[in-house]
Input
Amino acid sequence: MAQDNIESTLHEDRQFPPSEAFLKTASLLSEQLDALYKKAEQDHEAFWAEIARQEIDWKQPFTQTLDDTNAPHYRWFPDGKLNVSYNCLDRQLEKNADKTAVIFEGEKGDVEHISYRELHRRVSIFANALKTQDIGKGDRVVIYMPMITEAVIAMQACARIGAIHSVVFGGFSASSLKDRIEDTQAKLLITADGGFRGGKTVELKKTADQALEAGCPSVDKVIVYQRTKHDVPMQSGRDIWWSDATADQPEECEPEWMDAADPLFLLYTSGSTGKPKGIQHSCGGYLLNAITTMRWVFDIQATDVFWCTADVGWITGHTYVAYGPLATGATQVIYEGVPTVPDAGRFWDICQRHGVTIFYTAPTAIRALMKVGDEIPNSYDLSKLRLLGTVGEPINPEAWMWYHNVIGQGRCPIVDTWWQTETGAHMIAPVPGVTHAKPGSCTRPLPGIDAAIVNDEGEEITTANQGGYLVIRKPWPSMIQTIWGDDQRYKDTYWPYFGGKYYLAGDSARRDDNGFFWIMGRIDDVLNVSGHRLGTMEIESALVAHPLVAEAAVVGRPHDVKGEAVFAYVVLKGDRPEGGEDEELTKELRNWVGEQIGPIAKPDDIRYSDNLPKTRSGKIMRRLLRTIAKGEEITQDTSTLENESILLQLQGKA
Ligand code: 6R9
Output
């Protein structure tokens, strides 16, 4: 995909100014935007300080904006005190108590409208329940839940009492869950009996039990929400039903007043080497950019119905489900299931029934829904939509045009938002009432975000369309604080070059002659499968953990729906299967990886060879493997291969 995308986007010069219809109500126009850019350029810190005073209710106002004495562990608003949950809930009560905060829809069709007053009540009750379980400020709590309102309630309750949550996506396996719990040393796990997803019951409690059986000595208690109400074993003394934990709890819970730079949450993401990294985010800075981007990029307004389809297991579900919409007093949709149950019209049906005005999803979902044709979306009333967004990977111009024409009916601007788990919030994205969007480009950095493209020496590349490393040259409020428990890895991964001054995003990009950014792909061994980050190393370790596998190398190959597909080359301990094929074994290895990591990591292709192509120093020639996976002609020098005949095996020709 990346390569095809570069090819097609290089020729992309269509521009889409905001429509008249959108401009009628847009809140940020070019004059105001220019003023923001100007202020940010004049005084970066004063710019953020002013907005932080406007947008956040501080218990104790900050007097210092940025503490850089321990850079790159920057501390924003270091002497300010606030509570994130207070800013999301309590401050809405004065004017918006009866406004709907959440419209929840289960995959089976159950719908619940929850007002700000009610959400505040449930969060306070659950926060008190956490305290009863001896959870307090700084304790880690792992949340392994379906995509239901209670997942957000659990996150908000942690934020309320100063506990650090770490949400693990419900699709991750027992062993992935265990690794994350052990890394955080969490005292408490919050899970559910199960969830409804893809027409099936996801066995969350069962998987959680397996994780706890395999290790996790730090966990004392498990709170279990009853979603599916099917039978699950409860371990006495350890497991507590959510309903019991919350019974008789007071409806008021005084927020814990936190330093702005105290951690709010950890979220694990894949890196190029080793185990997943616990990305640590702060309370104050993180909240600030969750709010600013809701305003600048999503143009959030009082009457909007906002829907971000991401699961809370990913950063998008943190910033644009659990925090941003609530902190701006918005009404949002939360949907439990997948886009194709009962049929491929589900997203559009939800948009129609709940009157969604702002819709935010991933290119992989757009491509999948585009494949089933226009007839389905055309049969729904999508006239309430006014703004569309995408996130997670580059969107190919064809999918962009379809989204624009068929879903947005030419009326809705599309915001293609570039950001990362580490950046906390949108970094490079259109401002919908101003930017003339180009299909496939995330356009320009937001005010206060100093993004640039540099070469190996850290010098800015100013030649149009010349690719380089995407870096951020000034700290920004919602930036990663550290990798949990591994400050050194944080420095090595994100600040390795340029005198440790620039944040290295891990993406390559180019700027066109308009100054617009085009993301070209990762510079490391991270795959982007359906918008999810997967480390090739993680999948390789999972494969070699199988008793029959001696060695494995994993690369990505272009895939028209997922963006990238997982392609694994496997060397067995025993003989290579005859003709290089063994359907049974392939199935077993795929399931094995699914169990080790989660279904999203299952290899799409497995190819068996007697050896892997290596350089003299023993490095696997990944570039060669990528070429082969794409089915392209080999142009690399293969003379250093120990055994040239394996080339045919790698190509599936022998
Ligand atoms: C928010 C999120 C981050 C990586 C990032 C980049 C890719 C995200 C993108 C995009 C092109 C966009 N990415 N948004 N590439 N255009 N609009 O997805 O976070 O899961 O940490 O992934 O995703 O490669 O480095 P995360």
About this structure: The CA atoms of residues 319 and 558 lie 29 Å apart.
